[in-house]
Structure of 3-dehydroquinate dehydratase:
Amino acid sequence: MQNTLKPVVVRNVTIGEGAPKICVPLVGETMEQLKEEANFLTSQDFDVIEWRVDFYEHVEDIEKVKEALAEIRLILPSQPIVFTFRSAKEGGEKEVSTAYYVELNQAIAATGQVDIVDAELFTGDAEVKAIIEEAHKHHVYVIISNHDFDKTPSKEEIISRLRKAQELGGDIPKLAAMPQSVSDVLMLMEATHIMKEEYADRPIITMSMAGKGVISRIAGELFGSALTFGSAKKASAPGQVPVEELRSVLNTLHKHM
Ligand SMILES: O=C1C[C@@](O)(C(=O)O)C[C@@H](O)[C@@H]1O
């Protein structure tokens, strides 16, 4: 049975319709670096910004995070921002307590300065629901994500995690996995296609990482991934294609599909 997919619209960007949207990560460690990166982004062609706050030196001070966000917003006032603390166990830079992780995401959602927050699926059901509840109160969407930087889970497991993210109430389920073989890349793409055709009623995002997985970062319109991460100054994960090359290949595929 095919579901009707309701796109997510943030600040004029429609995620889940047409070519996959391009998300570019901000990975500065200091305020200076963040400002420099944000200024650089003003000349780049992308749709959405992801602030990977786990790179930021003062991530454990909510007030400083808010101040940095305000500075980023001054430089990039109009594009949607995804706020992401990626934990070390899922490929990020740092680990914080679960309580702080929830508090940080809730506090930043409440500022209204971000459009989407990323909550990791394995944080715990109650915690993920608490983040979603607070975010939705402030009209902020939630990506529920899962990452495996070592291997690719089975097809059934990929679908089950994406379904769980949807059942918990996430607006955009997301899964990134490391392929050990070409079959792993094909499996991730097939699982995404099945999820989209049979279970999803909202946009989903998946990617197979590193060189082998690059095809999954450009072919989402075909197999069902609604957004793709490209690099600007510095990549946040292996396999990200520079944004200008990404836009060109996404446009070519879209035009001929
Ligand atoms: O979840 C993702 C996807 C990602 O890991 C990638 O493989 O492009 C990059 C991360 O910054 C982002 O949070």
In short: The chain has one domain: 8-249. Residues 25, 50, 52, 84, 86, 118, 145, 147, 174, 176, 207, 209, 229, 236-237, 240 surround DQA (CB under 6 Å). The chain has nine helices and eleven strands.
